Amino acid sequence: MTRPITFLLIFISLSLVACDSKEKRTASSNDNPFQYQVDSILGLMTLDEKLGQLNLPSSGDITTGASQSSDIAKKIEEGKVGGLFNIKTVEKIREVQKIAMEKSRMKIPLIFGMDVIHGYETTFPIPLGLSCTWNMDMIEKTARMAAQEATADGINWTFSPMVDISRDPRWGRVSEGSGEDVFLGSQIAKAMVNGYQGDDLTKNNTMLACVKHFALYGAPEAGRDYNTVDMSRIRMYNEYLPPYQAAIDAGVGSVMASFNEIDGVPATGNKWLLTDLLREDWGFNGFVVTDYTGIEEMMYHGVGNLQQVSAQALKAGSDMDMVAEGFLGTLKQSVEDGLVSIEDIDKAVSRILTAKYQIGLFDDPYKYCDLERPKNEVFTEENRAFARQVSAESLVLLKNADSLLPLKKSGTIALVGPMANTAVNMAGTWSVATKQEKSIPLLEGLKTVAGDQVNVLYAKGSNVDYDLEYENRVTMFGKSIPRDDRSDQQLLDEALSIAAKSDVIIAAIGETAEMSGESSSVTNLQIPKLQQELLNALLKTGKPVVLVLFTGRPLAITAENENVQAILNVWFPGSEAGLAISDVLFGDVNPSGKLTATFPRNVGQVPIFYNHKNTGRPLGNKEGKFQKFKSNYLDVRNEPLYPFGYGLSYTKFDYKNLTVSTDTISMDSAFKVSVEVSNTGDYDGKEVVQLYVRDVVGSVTRPVRELKGFQKIEIKKGETKTVNFDMTVNDLKFYNSDLDFVAEPGEFQVFVGTDADAELMTSFQLKK
Ligand code: BGC
After folding, report:
1. Ligand 1 centroid vs 292 CA: distance in angstroms?
2. pLDDT by residue (tens digit) across 389-428?
3. Looking at the DSSP assignment, which residues form a beta bridge with residue 749?
4. Beta 210-214 vs 157-158: how paired, if at all?
5. Mutate to test the pocket of ligand 1, among 225, 292, 476 (most ligand atoms within 8 A of CB)
6. Alpha carbon distance 442, 434 (integer Å)
C-alpha cells in the first residue's frame, strides 16, 4: 500500500472510532467505556508506534533533571512521542499538535503536561502555605482556576497534586506538599483532584490530574532528596498512604511513580506498589507515569541495565516513561528476548489512549488550542483578586506580643530585608508558568495597602547570606536577588538610618524561593546567618519589630521567637504576595492560617510531628522538665516550638462545653461531637476548630492523638457558635498488624481546640 493511501485509511478509521465513541461504549469487555475504540486503534499500530505512545519527552523549554530530549519534532513525526511537557503557550502547543495530526502516520493527538502546582500564571501560595488555609472550598477553587488558566494556554494534564506526607523540614520538597497530617492531606488531595478534573473531563477547561509521588517520597533518610525510604507496612498504611488513596478515590486520572525505593525496590519498578496495591487493592484504572528519568535511575539504584530496568518498570505497572527513553529504546528488544510481551505493551498503550479519549482529544485534538482564550482567561483581575484572598488566608501569625499587629495606617514604617523588594521570589518553588517579574513584592504591596497616611521607607539591609557560592546555588533557577555590591556594613547602616526615622520596623527576611523545593535539602533550619545578624541589629534599636518570615519549610526560629515581638510566617504567597501580606499586617484581613507542619526548636528534634506514639517511657510532666530514663533529650525539651495546627488571630477564641452525643457507641452507629466556640476578642475572625481522637488501648500502639475532623468557621466578635462534627466508627479505624482496617472496642478520648495541643477533652466507649 502506498503511504498516502495508508494515511487516508488510518484517518478514516480514527475518525470513525472517534465519532462512534458514545454508541460503542458498551461493546467493551471491561468497564472502560473507550475499550472498543482503543482496541481498534491498537490494531492499526506498529510496535514502534505503540512504544511511541509510552514516551514522554520534555520539550526542553524548562530543564528539571539530568537528561535532555532532542529533536522532538522529528520524533513526533515518526510517531515516537505520546505526550510532551514543559512547553508553554497555546501557539507553540497548537503547532506541535499539528505535527502529530498532520505528519505522523497514526495521527494520534499528543497530551500536554506541565507542573501546574499552585496556580498557573495567577499563582497561589506554595502548597504548604495553601494547606495552612485549612479551607477545602478555597483549595479546590485554586485548582479549578489553575485548570482554567492552564487549559486556556494549551495544557491538559497537570503533575499535581503532590500529596507526599513529610515530617522532615530538612527535605526541601516539604514545601510542595500539605504537611505532616494524613487526614488533612487526604482532604486536600481530594479537593485538588476535584478542582483540576471538575465534573466533566471532556470540557475544555478541565484537566487530567496526576497524584504524586507514589509513594512515600516525603520520608527520605536524613531528609536528603531522592534518598532511600524504608518503612514498616503498618506505618505506610496508617500514616503515609491514605492521601494517595484519597486521590484515587476522587477519580484522579494518572499517578506518578516516585524516585525512591520501597522495600528495596525502586517505586518505578515495584510491582507490589504499582499493580498489587494501586490497581488491585485500590481499583485505580488510569495510567502511571514515571518521574523524570525514573527508569534510567533504576540503573543507578543498582537493579539492572537499561533494558532490564525498562522491562521491569513496564511489567511492574509503569505505563509512560518520562524522559528516560528506556521504553522507546529497549522494549522492542525485550519483546524479542521474551522479557515483556506484546500484551504488556498493549496494556500500557491502552491506558494512555484511554486517557486521551477521556479528555476528548480524539474528538478534537485542538480543543485546548483556542488562541483567543489566554487573553481573557489567564492572569485576569478576577483571578488575581482571588489569589490575594487565598494568600492572605495562608499566612500564619506565630507571635503577636502586646498586640503589635495589626499596624495602624499612619506614621512611618521602615521596611528592611533582602526579601522586601523581590518580585521573582514571591511565587516560590515550582511556579514554572508564573510570570515571576509580575508578582507583587512586599514593598509595592505595603505602599498600596497603607495608603497616603503612611510613610514607607525601604532598605535592603543585607544580602541573602555571607556565602556567595551558597547564594548562587539557591538561586540557580534564576529567581535570584541581585547581590548588592555595597559592603555588609554599608547595607546595615542604611537600614539602621531608616529604622531610626520610623515608628515600627518590618523585617522581611528568611529563605529565598529556591532554598526549598526539589533538590533543596538542608541540614541547618535557621534563617541565614547574615539575615539573623541584620534582625538582631534592628532589634537593638529598641523599635518594635515585626518579622515577616519567608520560608518554604518549618524553620527553627527559637531565638527569633524569644526576641521579636511579632512574627508573621508568609511562606511564598504567590503572585499577589505583597498585597496579601499587607492586608494582614494592617488588619484588613484577620489572620487565620494554621500550621500543617510542626516547627521544631532545633534541627536535632527532626523528625518531629504531633501524632507520635507514647513510648514505654513517656515524659511525666508538661513543663518539659528533664527526667532520667524517660524518653527525652538532655539539651532540649520534647515539645516543638509551635505545634501542628497552631496559628494566632487578632481576636481570641474560647472553647467550652465539649460533648459527645452518647457515652457508648456501637460498631454501626454514628455519633456527634459538639463544642461551643466564642469570639471573645475585638475583631471578627475565622477559626479552624480541630478535633483530635486518641484510641487509648489498641492491639497495636496508637498515636497520642490524631486529627479526625476540622471546620473553618467565621465568628463575629462577641458571638458564640456551636460546632458539630458528625462522626462514624469509620473515623476510629486504623490498620492493625494484619493490615485489616478495623475499629477496636474500648475507650476513646476526644480533644477539641485551636491546635494539636488542645486540652478540652471528653471520652466515650466503643462497644463490640
Ligand atoms: C519532579 C516531579 C515533576 C517532574 C516533571 C521531577 O523532577 O520530581 O515532581 O513533576 O520533574 O517536571
Report:
1. 6
2. 999 999 999 999 999 999 999 999 999 999 999 999 999 9
3. 694, 763
4. unpaired
5. 292
6. 17
Q: Atom of ligand 1 at shortest distance to CA of 210?
A: 10
Assess whether 291 carries a catalytic annotation. yes
79-118 burial code (b ≥16 CB/10 A, e <16): bbbbbbbbbbebebbbebbebbbeebbbbbbbbbbbbbbb
In the reported structure, the alpha carbon of residue 84 is separated from the centroid of ligand 1 by a whole-number distance in angstroms of 13
Instruction: Report the C-alpha gap between 258 and 212 in whole angstroms.
Output: 7
Output the average pLDDT for the chain: 94
Site residues for ligand 1, CB cut-off 6 Å: 64-65, 115, 159, 212, 291-292, 518
Atom 10 of ligand 1, nearest CA residue = 159
Residue 231 grid cell:
518503612
- CATH architecture of the region 390-588: 3-Layer(aba) Sandwich (3.40)
Q: Three-class SS of residue 83?
A: strand
Of 191, 187, 183, nearest to 147 by C-alpha is 191
Q: What angle do CA 39, 41, 46 make, to 5 degrees?
A: 110
Nearest CA to ligand 1 atom 4: 292
E-assigned strands of 32-142?
55-56, 83-85, 111-114
Q: Which atom of ligand 1 is nearest the CA belonging to 65? A: 7
Q: Say how many Å lie between the CA of residue 64 and the centre of ligand 1.
A: 7
Instruction: Please list, in sequence order, all residues whose beta carbon lies within 8 angstroms of the beta carbon of residue 174, skipping any fewer than 6 positions away.
Output: 128, 166, 168, 218, 516, 552, 553, 554, 597
Parse the chain into domains and list their residue ranges. 1-44, 390-588, 653-766
CATH 2.60.40.10 corresponds to the domain 653-766: yes
Ligand 1: which of 291, 293, 476 to mutate, judged by most atoms within 8 Å of the beta carbon? 291
Dist. CA 390 → ligand 1 center (Å): 25
Nearest CA, atom 5, ligand 1: 292
Check: CB of residue 573 under 8 Å from CB of residue 395: yes
Residue 64 has pLDDT above 70, yes or no: no
- First CA to last CA distance, the chain: 73
The ligand 1 atom at the shortest distance from the C-alpha of residue 159 is 10
Catalytic residue among 115, 153, 168, 291: 291
Across 415-424, 447-456, 617-626, least confident range: 617-626
pLDDT of residue 30: 59
Q: What does the pLDDT look like over 23-52, one tens digit per residue?
A: 333 333 458 999 999 999 999 999 999 999
Q: What pLDDT was estimated at residue 61? A: 55
Residue 765's pLDDT is 98
Longest dimension (CA), the chain: 87
Average pLDDT over residues 492-503: 98
Average pLDDT over residues 719-735: 98
What pLDDT is stored for residue 472 in this prediction?
Answer: 85
Looking at the DSSP bridge assignments, the partners of residue 119 are 123
Between the CA of 282 and the centroid of ligand 1 the distance, in Å, is: 24
Cα(8) to ligand 1 centroid in Å equals 38
Distances (CA, A) of 445 to 380, 411, 662, 717: 18, 17, 51, 28
Nearest CA, atom 8, ligand 1: 291
pLDDT at residue 302 is higher than 90:
yes
Gap between the Cα atoms of 250 and 190, Å rounded: 6
Beta bridge partners of 261: 266
On whether the pTM is more than 0.90, the answer is: yes
The x, y and z cell numbers of residue 20, run together, are 462512534
Sheet with 761-767: list strands edge to edge. 664-666, 761-767, 746-753, 685-695, 706-715
Pocket test for ligand 1, best of 67, 86, 115 (most atoms within 8 A of CB): 115
Atom of ligand 1 nearest to the CA of 213: 9
- Percent of the residues in the chain that have a pLDDT greater than 70, as a whole number: 95
